[in-house]
């Protein structure tokens, strides 16, 4: 231990230790620093050490310390890694392959000298009669043909039930057109299957389970969509592409809906136990909600839609799809509505809870606090074009910044369709807003705009009557409040 | 399979595939590295499968899941084109492009009795007479060699010089020898033997232009009532051995080479292997396939089937 203040001794020790016990890589650093020894030699303090100690070191040196350092056994790794190098995996595999290959016995051709050939082994033998009897293949085929009565038999090859999780995925499939849409089909599908094959396997499994069959069109008529664990199909999310491999998706719950015309799912087809309520959204799309209870309050349906869409709890109302503009009393029951198709709309009145505002909205939909409000409000309206098809836009009115924003919701289709750009107009540019004509239940209103160049431009919109009234009233209010030189010019 | 059915295919994609014949599912794939599969054969005890490959014959255990062969037979310099077994499983015969027909002794490690038969052209096909004493060798020069193993006497038949013989087969009753060549012609000889020790004699029976293109394979059915021939014209034709008249033509729309075929033991079904990567199962009386075996990525050139009880 006394030698631990001897630098050369330490250096020798480190060099020895490197071979067996260095996990940190520090020894390695010292090892490759070749001039360490020279530094020690030049160190004055070291030179002052007793002659006896130096002699002891020199003896030890003779015993191969330096030789050891230069030994081929000691080789610094080029990376100076802080951990000993791992056994290379590919080397391991090579060893395993060699082991495997060593089990293969090789037989080299050797010819036996003709005189040593025992020809009696090749003496003619009586021809054995051919065994008669049916082939087991025939029976197997017959059994298989029975199974083939399933119209989706050809998809059964993608059934991955016996293949383990490494090569297959498990899904719970909700069939919206089945008699029992909330009772999913559990399928295990090979990774090699596409989304369309998944539909095939699901239908195959459905028949195999002996569940009540329903009329099915070809596989192509159905789309796979993402579903919730309670069987609600998210129809507002895009369908999964039919030719994508299922291994691409990580969803566990999926729904199958008829692609061509989703309205084909007739309510009377569903047993009385379930009611399928459809709630449409203002910007397109709809959600289906299955109601298993006899009757529920409309507030429950609203709550479920809001939960499903992860919307804010307040600020939304339900309307009947065929009579827009009239909010439904949320305390009324589903059965009293006489329909199962509803529309989810924004209740633009800020600060009011939906339940308390219901009565007001139904009674006087055209007068609301949002008209006088200074908060930003937006309305879903249709922008009318003379030469082109009409476009759904979001008309936003921002009283604080004194401007009107037009945000297209859908792109124009058809000949000469130029994409509609979002537009922002200063309130000062707008000279008047008026209702042009009534097209019950809608109304057409016009915003007259005086451009900076001095030309007059009209923009026509169509919206439900009550919304039109709100927009016109609100805009008029803002215009009247705004001191505008343009307006005075117009006058 | 529990019923003792083995169906294996191999081809140019360097893999061997085992199939469930009744539902078309591939349950095992073995890589066949460095070589295409020229021919497949199953040992009589259905324990092993052999593949004729380039310079090698590889023997695989059918029951195990191991992907490497149990035995590799070496010593050939070129492609091995033909392989088969004696009924007792003690000997294996092989023929190859090195113009040699060989008999391998499988009885033990000593290889006491291995025999060689040299011909002047690459060997295309071989078959063993059901009496286990005569080997038929077809070669590229269009010669059919009849090699009597007991006496080592051999004779040659040349149905048409320089027209390559692609397949030879003797029916299980030992009554006929069939051979097909590059011109699509099928030759049939009647085989007779005056006694068990006498060499067999061949008498020409029929010569039929069975196919328009190369004929690739001829196989008699186990009950000797049918002869199937396959061809590059995309057909497999089934002939009745009673009068060698055409009984059925098995054809798909795709005009792909049909390389190989195999009968079921009841002679009712026939498997075909084709260049369109698909093997098919047919009933001999029907004109459309009953099952299809899809999974190979290149042409299937060889098929082996055994359901013998």
TrEMBL record, chain A:
Membrane topology, from the record: Peripheral membrane protein
Record keywords: Cell membrane, Cytoplasm, Endoplasmic reticulum, Endosome, Golgi apparatus, Lysosome, Membrane, Mitochondrion, Mitochondrion outer membrane, Nucleus
Localization terms from the record: Cell membrane; Cytoplasm, Perinuclear region; Early endosome membrane; Endoplasmic reticulum membrane
Ranges of residues in domain Target of rapamycin complex 2 subunit MAPKAP1-like Ras-binding: 283-346
InterPro entries, per the entry: CRIM_dom (IPR031567), PH-like_dom_sf (IPR011993), RBD_SIN1 (IPR057339), Sin1/Avo1 (IPR008828), Sin1_N (IPR032679), Sin1_PH_dom (IPR031313)
GO biological process, one term: TORC2 signaling
Molecular function GO labels: phosphatidylinositol-4,5-bisphosphate binding
Any Pfam family hit: SIN1_PH
GO cellular component: early endosome membrane; endoplasmic reticulum membrane; Golgi membrane; late endosome membrane; lysosomal membrane; mitochondrial outer membrane; nucleus; perinuclear region of cytoplasm
Ranges where the SIN1-type PH domain occurs: 375-480
All copies of domain CRIM, residue ranges: 135-262
Domain Sin1 N-terminal: 18-75
Keyword ATP-binding: no
Record-stated family: Belongs to the SIN1 family.
Protein name (record): Target of rapamycin complex 2 subunit MAPKAP1
Upper taxonomic lineage: Eukaryota, Metazoa, Porifera, Demospongiae, Heteroscleromorpha
From TrEMBL, chain B:
Family annotation (Pfam families): WD40
Membrane spanning stretches: none
GO BP annotations listed: positive regulation of phosphatidylinositol 3-kinase/protein kinase B signal transduction; regulation of actin cytoskeleton organization; regulation of cellular component size; TORC2 signaling
One GO cellular component term: cytoplasm
Keyword list, A-Z: Cytoplasm, Repeat, WD repeat
Subcellular location: Cytoplasm
Repeat listed as a keyword: yes
Keyword Cytoplasm among UniProt keywords: yes
Sequence ranges of the WD repeats: 73-107, 116-157, 208-249
Alphabetical list of InterPro entries matching this protein: MLST8, WD40/YVTN_repeat-like_dom_sf, WD40_repeat_CS, WD40_repeat_dom_sf, WD40_rpt
UniProt cross-references to SMART domains, sorted A to Z: WD40
Oligomer status and interactors: Part of TORC1 complex. Part of the TORC2 complex.
Similarity comment text for this entry: Belongs to the WD repeat LST8 family.
Record's function text: Subunit of TORC1 and TORC2, which regulate cell growth and survival in response to nutrient and hormonal signals.
Name of the protein described by the UniProt record: Target of rapamycin complex subunit lst8
Species: Amphimedon queenslandica (Sponge)
Lineage of source species: Eukaryota, Metazoa, Porifera, Demospongiae, Heteroscleromorpha
């Amino acid at each position: 231990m006394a030698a631990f203040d001897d630098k050369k001794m330490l250096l020798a020790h480190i060099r020895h230790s490197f071979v067996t016990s260095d996990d940190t890589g520090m020894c390695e650093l010292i090892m490759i620093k070749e001039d360490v020894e020279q530094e020690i030699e030049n160190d004055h303090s070291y030179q002052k050490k007793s002659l006896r100690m130096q002699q002891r070191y020199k003896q030890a040196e003779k015993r191969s310390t330096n030789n050891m350092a230069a030994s081929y056994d000691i080789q610094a790794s080029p990376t100076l890694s802080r951990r000993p190098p791992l056994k290379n995996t590919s080397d391991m595999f090579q060893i395993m392959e060699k082991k495997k290959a060593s089990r293969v016995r090789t037989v080299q051709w050797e010819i036996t000298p003709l005189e040593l050939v025992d020809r009696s082994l090749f003496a003619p033998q009586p021809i054995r009669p051919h065994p008669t009897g049916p082939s087991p293949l025939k029976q197997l085929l017959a059994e298989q043909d029975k199974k083939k009565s399933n119209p989706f038999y050809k998809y059964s090859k993608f059934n991955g039930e016996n293949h383990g999780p490494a090569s297959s995925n498990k899904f719970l499939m909700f069939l919206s057109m089945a008699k029992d849409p909330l009772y999913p089909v559990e399928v295990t599908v090979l990774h090699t299957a596409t989304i369309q094959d998944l539909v095939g396997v699901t239908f195959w499994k459905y028949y195999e389970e002996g569940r009540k069959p329903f009329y099915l069109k070809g596989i192509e008529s159905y789309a796979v969509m993402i579903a919730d664990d309670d069987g609600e199909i998210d129809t507002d999310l895009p369908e999964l592409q039919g030719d994508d491999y299922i291994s691409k998706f990580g969803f566990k719950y999926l729904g199958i809906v008829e692609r061509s015309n989703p309205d084909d799912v007739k309510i009377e087809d569903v047993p009385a136990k379930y009611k399928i309520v459809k709630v449409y959204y203002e910007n397109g799309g709809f959600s289906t909600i299955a109601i298993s209870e006899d009757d529920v309050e409309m507030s429950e349906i609203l709550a479920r839609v809001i939960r499903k869409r992860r919307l804010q709890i307040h600020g939304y109302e339900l309307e009947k799809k065929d009579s827009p503009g009239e909010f439904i009393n949320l305390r009324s029951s589903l059965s009293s509505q006489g329909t199962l198709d509803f529309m989810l709309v924004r209740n633009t009145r800020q600060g009011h809870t939906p339940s308390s505002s219901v009565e007001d909205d139904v009674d006087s939909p055209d007068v609301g606090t949002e008209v006088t409000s200074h908060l930003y409000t937006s309305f879903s309206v249709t922008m009318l074009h003379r030469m082109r098809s009409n476009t759904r836009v979001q008309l936003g009115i921002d009283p604080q910044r004194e401007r009107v924003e037009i945000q297209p919701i859908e792109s124009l289709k058809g000949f000469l369709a130029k994409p509609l750009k979002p537009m922002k107009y200063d309130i000062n540019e707008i000279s008047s807003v008026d209702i042009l004509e009534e097209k019950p239940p809608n109304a057409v209103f016009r915003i007259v705009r005086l451009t900076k160049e001095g030309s007059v431009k009209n923009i026509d919109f169509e919206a439900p009557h009550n919304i039109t009234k709100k927009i016109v009233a609100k805009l008029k209010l803002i215009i009247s409040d705004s001191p505008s030189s343009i307006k005075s010019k117009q006058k | 399979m529990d019923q003792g059915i083995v169906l294996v295919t191999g081809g140019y994609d360097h893999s061997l595939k085992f199939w469930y014949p009744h539902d078309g599912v591939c349950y095992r794939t073995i890589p066949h590295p460095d070589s295409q599969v020229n021919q497949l054969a199953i040992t009589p005890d259905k324990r092993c499968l052999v593949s004729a490959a380039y310079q090698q014959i590889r023997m695989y255990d059918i029951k195990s899941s191991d992907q490497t062969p149990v035995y590799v037979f070496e010593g050939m310099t070129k492609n091995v084109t033909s392989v088969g077994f004696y009924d007792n499983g003690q000997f294996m015969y092989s023929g190859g492009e090195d113009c040699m027909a060989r008999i391998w002794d499988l009885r033990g490690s000593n290889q006491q009795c291995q025999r060689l038969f040299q011909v002047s052209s690459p060997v295309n096909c071989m078959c063993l007479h059901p009496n286990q004493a005569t080997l038929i060798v077809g070669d590229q020069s269009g010669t059919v060699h009849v090699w009597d193993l007991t006496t080592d006497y051999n004779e040659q038949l040349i149905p048409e010089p320089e027209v390559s013989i692609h397949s030879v087969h003797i029916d299980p009753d030992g009554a006929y020898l069939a051979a097909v060549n590059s011109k699509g012609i099928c030759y049939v000889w009647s085989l007779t033997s005056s006694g068990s020790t006498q060499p067999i004699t061949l008498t020409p029976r029929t010569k039929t232009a069975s196919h328009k293109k190369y004929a690739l394979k001829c196989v008699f059915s186990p009950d000797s009532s049918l002869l199937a021939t396959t061809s590059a014209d995309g057909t497999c034709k089934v002939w009745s051995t009673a009068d060698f008249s055409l009984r059925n033509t098995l054809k798909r729309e795709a005009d792909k080479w049909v390389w190989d075929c195999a009968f079921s033991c009841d002679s009712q079904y026939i498997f075909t292997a084709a260049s369109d990567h698909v093997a098919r199962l047919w009933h001999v009386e029907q004109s459309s396939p009953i099952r299809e075996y899809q999974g190979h990525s290149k042409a299937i050139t060889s098929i082996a089937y055994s359901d013998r009880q």
